[in-house]
């Protein structure tokens, strides 16, 4: 999918300010490790919604995926929180590129997210997938396809 189309869909999703249902929150809490859930709760609502959508698409592609891989689908954008950019800032960072510290952090979110997850004790499978690495290319491809909204 083109980057512009991806951005447009993410922007439209950002306009929906409704919160997640309690059952969705409970499902995410049940799936993630406690410290991962704390990180996930600190993600902006738009990222939480996006992560749930990606997780559902990932599980549709790989219904028998190990739980650590499913966790990665929920946490794949956790590193974006470090850039502290809102929707417009993210659009600008995508258009302008890695100029300045915050835009660079936004573009390096996979590496940053993997480091954070490694530091809190996430499974190796989880943080490797968040970093864009895996010994199993099928799992990584499924994650990329699930994120291609």
Description:
By secondary structure, the protein is mainly alpha-helical. It has one domain. It is built from ten helices and no strands. The protein has helices at residues 3-15, 22-31, 34-41, 45-61, 67-75, 87-96, 101-107, 109-120, 124-130, 137-147. α4 (45-61) runs antiparallel to α5, α5 runs parallel beside α9 and α8 (109-120) packs antiparallel against α9 (124-130). The longest helix has 17 residues, at 45-61. It is globular and about 40 Å long. The model has no long low-confidence stretch (mean pLDDT 87).
Q: Helix tally?
A: 10
Q: In the residues, how many domains can be counted?
A: 1
Cα separation of the termini: 8 Å
Secondary-structure class: mainly alpha
Shape call: globular
* Chain-averaged pLDDT: 87
Order of secondary-structure elements: HHHHHHHHHH
Radius of gyration: 14 Å
Largest sheet: none
Features:
mainly alpha; 149 residues; 70% helix; 10 helices; single chain; globular
What's this, in brief?
With 149 residues, this protein is mainly alpha-helical. 70% of the residues lie in helices and 0% in strands.
Topology of helices and strands:
Layout: H1 3-15, H2 22-31, H3 34-41, H4 45-61, H5 67-75, H6 87-96, H7 101-107, H8 109-120, H9 124-130, H10 137-147
Helix pairs in contact: 4-5, 4-10, 5-9, 6-7, 8-9
């Amino acid at each position: 999918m083109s980057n512009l189309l991806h951005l447009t869909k993410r922007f439209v999703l950002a306009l929906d300010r409704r919160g997640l249902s309690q059952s969705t929150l409970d499902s995410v809490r049940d799936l993630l490790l406690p410290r991962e859930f704390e990180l996930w709760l600190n993600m902006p609502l738009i990222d939480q919604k996006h992560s749930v959508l990606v997780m559902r698409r990932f599980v549709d592609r790989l219904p028998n995926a190990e739980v650590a891989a499913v966790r990665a689908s929920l946490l794949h954008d956790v590193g974006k929180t470090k850039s502290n950019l809102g929707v417009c800032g993210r659009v600008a960072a995508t258009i302008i590129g890695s100029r300045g510290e915050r835009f660079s952090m936004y573009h390096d979110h996979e590496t940053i997210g993997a480091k954070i997850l490694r530091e809190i004790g996430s499974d190796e499978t989880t943080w490797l997938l968040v970093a864009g690495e895996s010994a199993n290319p099928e799992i990584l491809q499924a994650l990329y396809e699930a994120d291609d909204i």
